[in-house]
Amino acid sequence: MARKASHAGAWYNENARELAEELDRWLQAASPSKRSNARAVIAPHAGYRYSGRCAAYAFANIDPQTISRVFLLGPSHHYFTRKCALSRTTVYKTPLGDLPIDLEIYEELKATGRFEDMDLTVDEAEHSMEMHLPYLARVFQGCSVKVVPILVGALSSESEATYGRLLAKYIDDPRNFFSVSSDFCHWGTRFNYTYYEKKHGPIYKSIEALDQNGMRIIETGDPRAFKDYMQEYDNTICGQHPISVFLNMTEHCNTRLQINFLQYEQSSHCKSMRDSSVSYASAVATVAAI
Q1: Domain of life of the organism in this record (predicted)?
Q2: Spatial separation of the C-alpha atoms in residues 92 and 53, rounded to whole Å
Q3: Which residue among 78, 165, 283, 287 is the one 20 to 30 A from 28 at the CA level?
Q4: What domains lie within the chain, and their CATH numbers?
Q5: Beta carbons within 8 Å of 144's beta carbon, 6+ residues apart
Q6: Average pLDDT over residues 180-190
Q7: Pairing state between β 2-3 and 91-92
Q8: Assign residue 188 a region: left if phi > 0, alpha if psi is -120 to 50, beta otherwise?
Q9: Percent of the chain at pLDDT above 70?
Q10: How confident is the model at residue 33 (pLDDT cuts 50, 70, 90)?
Q11: How far apart are CA 56 and CA 59, in angstroms?
């Protein structure tokens, strides 16, 4: 059974040639050299007209020659669960080629008893992991790669730590890579979030300061500090649970990682309480020099 590219044609271009050209243009503009020591990225998941350019700053770091498996950690926008869920399909389709699921790893994860199955309707309604797939298909074109999609529910701090410990061993294998999906601040009355510190000037500058504070804390790799930040500001970071799981992974793996944010953008600049925006940020986690 395959998961169709359900958001193609709406959230991103369904024409393979046009989509490839668009992604290539963004990747070349981001243009860092590929990093053989990169083990993970954090990247946004909005429609490509909003966040596609920002996402390139994450995916441009991937060296496809060194990686054979990509774990996807994405938040659940429509389906409520207190656990993590695994797809029932065997392949994720994209306009740029199909990405097979690593069923061997899925069996390992299922054996822990910590994961539930994700219905196909839930799988195809969710966009958080799908928006990473065309980039992965493009970057790994001509290379053999499998994916391990994991839908991350509304986890408690204890559950985030549990899943972090469970997944930590996979970071230590240099053939594995993690793609963590998250947008940052969703600001405006339509999001029920209008936090504003006037000392920063215009609203959009206050939003940027709020996000940059969270990004600096994520860069420390401390899941407790990130949790404290979320509790203090209640920032509407929709991938907070995938990020927290990843931070817990970095604490419990044997590989020392350094997280660095590379790009930050906003869908628009809010100047009045009638405005709204969504923030996007891209980061890479590399093996730290000893």
Answers
A1: Eukaryota
A2: 23
A3: 287
A4: 32-287 (3.40.830.10)
A5: 68
A6: 98
A7: parallel
A8: left
A9: 99
A10: confident
A11: 5
Q: What are 45-91's pLDDT values in tens digits?
A: 999 999 999 999 999 999 999 999 999 999 999 999 999 999 999 99
SS (H, E, C) the chain: CEECCCCECCCECCCHHHHHHHHHHHHHHHCCCCECCEEEEEECCCCHHHHHHHHHHHHCCECCCCCCEEEEEEECCCCCCCCEEEECCCEECCCCCCEEECHHHHHHHHCCCCEEEECHHHHHHCCCCHHHHHHHHHHCCCCCCEEEEEEECCCCHHHHHHHHHHHHHHHCCCCEEEEEECCCCEEEHHHCECCCCHHHCCHHHHHHHHHHHHHHHHHHCCHHHHHHHHHHHCCCCCCHHHHHHHHHHHHHCCCCEEEEEEEEEECCCCCCCCCCEEEEEEEEEEECCC
The three-point CA angle 59-179-109 to 5° equals 155
Strand pairing of 176-181 and 38-43?
parallel
pTM: 0.98
HSE at residue 255, side-chain half, CA atoms within 13 A, is 23
Q: Is the dihedral of CA 186, 187, 190, 194 positive or negative?
A: positive
Phi, psi for residue 257 in degrees, rounded to 5 = -110, 150
Distance CA(136)–CA(245), nearest Å, equals: 21
